[in-house]
Amino acid sequence: MKSLWNPSDARKAGKSLLNQRVYTSRLLGQEPELVLHGGGNTSVKVREKTFFGDTEDIVYVKGSGWDLGTIEAQGFSPVRLNVLQKMAEMETLSDADMVREQCAAMTNPNAPAPSIEAILHGILPFTFVDHTHANAVIALTNAPKGEQRIKEVYGDRVLIVPYVMPGFVLSRTVYEMIKGRDLSGIEGIVLMNHGIFTFADDAKTSYERMIQLVSEAENFLRKKAGARFLAKAKPQDNPLALATLRKAVSDQRGCPMVVKLDQSLEACGYSSLPSIKSIATRGPLTPDHSIRTKRIPVVVTGDPAADLQRFADDYRKYFDRCASEGHTMLDPSPRWAVWQGHGVAAFGRTVKEAGIVSDIAHHTYRTIQQAEKLGGWRALSEKDIFEIEYWELEQAKLKSSSKAGPDLQGKVALVTGAAAGIGQACANALHEAGAAVVALDLNPEIEELFNADDRLGITVNLTKLDKVRAAVDTAVRRFGGIDIVLSNAGIFTAGAYIDQMDAGNWDKSIAVNLTSHQQLLQVCIPFLKLGIDPAAIIIGSRNVAAPGAGAASYSCAKAGLTQLVRVAALELASSGVRVNIIHPDAVFDTKLWTPEALKRSAERYGLTIEEYKTRNLMKAEITSKDVGKAAVAFAGSTFLKTTGAQIPVDGGNDRVI
Questions:
Q1: What angle do CA 431, 432, 438 make, to 5 degrees?
Q2: Of 177, 319, 536, 653, which residue is least crowded by CB atoms under 10 Å?
């Protein structure tokens, strides 16, 4: 492990100890081998003037809910040092009392709640204190003869603390160990099955001690365990099987779930180990992870639904073995899976949540293999892990993310013709409603327009069946399945009377406005049948009910598309797939309608541009966003029991009515 300390960047922090604390905290947070997603904590001790001009000693400790990788000065909680030290002297202290007194001792009541390790930071007699869950250190502590190996690596330079409950119990244990002891030769504290602390009176030394001690653990592992991985293997690539797994997970959880699949050679090798059922189900790297990942993953070897049911049954037994009065069982669904032959899959209500679980799972299976090569991975007892998984102070970290989300949260939407106009508006509306969105378009700009963790843009010619199939498979691999298909791609070919029509325009309109939609449905239907409350929404046209002369190629294609929707509704209803069509009219905020084209059309009717844009019964301007809102309604719970419907979004057209 290399130090990321940069003298130039460090100078920017200035003389402020808190700013220096922010700088080195971020350095720690940038290294996933040290901390992941809110893990670890840091502190700094300072002397400050009170409101009345007196001076007092303050510990700025990482606030609960903040991530070391992005923490700001306001992410640290200022707590009076003398209060923390007095709390450590108490023989017993309840969690509720600890939290209350720590918050009461803050000099800024608007700051976040202090870390549950605030007391421990307070009693360590150093200005800077760093704490991480370093993978290499945990690999040593969670292997046979863990304490002996730690001594072999560090000698007397670290104190070793047997596993105890984090929070007050840990703080009290360390307090008794260091009381009256000379710590001048001590560089850190190793917490068995938990992590490591380093400390110093300057930011650089404390940080670089962490890097040095972890590097020594890494070097020891490299020497004793050799190559990191037990096996590597090529993945089985089956998007339909992935969608089947997602369906089973979502059904068990009772809500749509995003799946992030790790199909690296290492993940597939791990999942293919003959002893994987034993190795993967011994416990997490550190008990803190259990609040996001549960104690163990599900091992999927055959029918996902059957494997998930066994996991849930085993979880209930685990709860019954470990629970005491006052505990209420959390949902028994797994948060990640070791999927034999396929890799490692993480589940989440959102793409972000699935990503967090995936990161933890990734580091878990890598570290487990290191410890396995040292003689066998050994996690904490299930009782110890249960105490953390159901610990009120840890559960509080997740409460803010457990609130009910938007209507389409967890769902995956595929939208065509999404680079502009109605397609883009629909894609944005579905995303705002909570869906992960895969956007397809012939325009390569789509890849930049939809480029985020929960948005994916794919350039594709929708008239090419093989390209459509590849794009849909990519969408499923990215998010686990498809729940919503919004088929919007279309063109308006040059107007011409039938006897003067160019055959090429007719063929092009049929290919894009009808056949491409049929091909998309054909490819997506197997995935929609595995979707959660699945819906296909097709963008039609007012021309279906009220065609105009000279628009045969466009109108006939859209009429055929409407008939396709009706047939699809008949065919897919028994599978729970809704198929509906929206008929927009006079949507002028698209690239098709340039100011010049709009002006020409208005003049042809003898109207002003404003009059032309509102020439419907309601005198309302129709926008792409209006169509997007209708699409969200059709995709969500409002029209959960509607299929085969044709809904106009046109402000009321007298010819249609």
A1: 5
A2: 177
The CA distance from 599 to 610, in Å, is: 10
Q: Which residues pair with 189 in a beta bridge?
A: 159, 197
Q: Is the pLDDT of residue 574 over 90?
A: yes
Q: Which residues sit opposite 372 in a β-bridge?
A: none
Expressed in angstroms, the distance from the first to the final Cα of the chain is 71
- CA gap 657, 651 in Å, rounded: 11
Task: Give whole-number Cα distances, 405 to 41, 61, 349, 427, 612, in Å.
Answer: 29, 31, 9, 18, 40
Residue 312, both tokens: 């849930």
Rg of the Cα atoms in the chain: 30
How confident is residue 594, by pLDDT bands cut at 50, 70 and 90? confident
Residues in the chain: 657
Please say whether the beta carbons of 100 and 86 come within 8 A: no
Residues 6+ apart with CB under 8 A from 410: 250, 255, 256, 257, 258, 349, 350, 434, 532
Q: Which residue do the tokens 């791609």 mark?
A: 489
Mean per-residue pLDDT for 401-408?
75
Give the C-alpha separation, 476 to 214, whole Å: 38
Q: How far apart are CA 627 and CA 643, in angstroms?
A: 18
pTM for the structure as a whole: 0.92
Q: Which residue has the tokens 């197997």?
A: 526
Nearest C-alpha neighbor of 115 from the set 128, 105, 102, 133? 102
Task: Kindly state the DSSP code that residue 94 receives in the 8-state scheme.
Answer: -
- In whole angstroms, what is the distance from residue 200 CA to residue 125 CA? 9
In this structure, are strands 158-161 and 188-191 parallel, antiparallel, or unpaired?
Answer: parallel
Residue 24 near residue 383 (C-beta atoms within 8 A): no
Q: CA nearest 347: which of 406, 287, 297, 274?
A: 297
Token representation of residue 104? 């009461």
- The single-letter DSSP state of residue 236 is P
Residue 635 exposed, middle or buried by CB count within 10 Å (0-12, 13-18, 19+): buried
Q: Residue 465: which residues within 8 A CB-CB, separation 6 or more? A: 519, 522, 523
CA distance 281 to 31: 26
Backbone angles phi, psi at 240, to 5 degrees: -65, -35
Q: Which residue in this structure is represented by tokens 């799946």?
A: 259
Q: How confident is the model at residue 403, as a pLDDT?
A: 63
Residues 6 or more apart whose CB falls under 8 angstroms from that of 457 comprise: 418, 438, 439, 440, 441, 446, 447, 448, 449, 450, 451
Nearest to 645 by CA among 655, 629, 633: 633
Strands lying side by side in the sheet with 128-132: 76-80, 55-62, 41-49, 128-132, 195-200, 188-191, 158-161
Strand stretches in 498-544, DSSP E? 535-539
Answer positive or negative: Cα dihedral of 530, 535, 538, 539. Answer: negative
pLDDT tens sequence across 519-537:
999 999 999 999 999 999 9
DSSP, res 511: I
Tokens of 590: 């698209």
Q: Are 636 and 433 in contact (CB under 8 A)?
A: yes
Residue with tokens 């046109």: 650
Strand pairing class (343-348; 336-339): antiparallel
Strand runs (DSSP E) across 605-654, as ranges? 646-649
Q: Hey, what's the torsion of the CAs at 144, 150, 152, 155, to 10 degrees?
A: -160
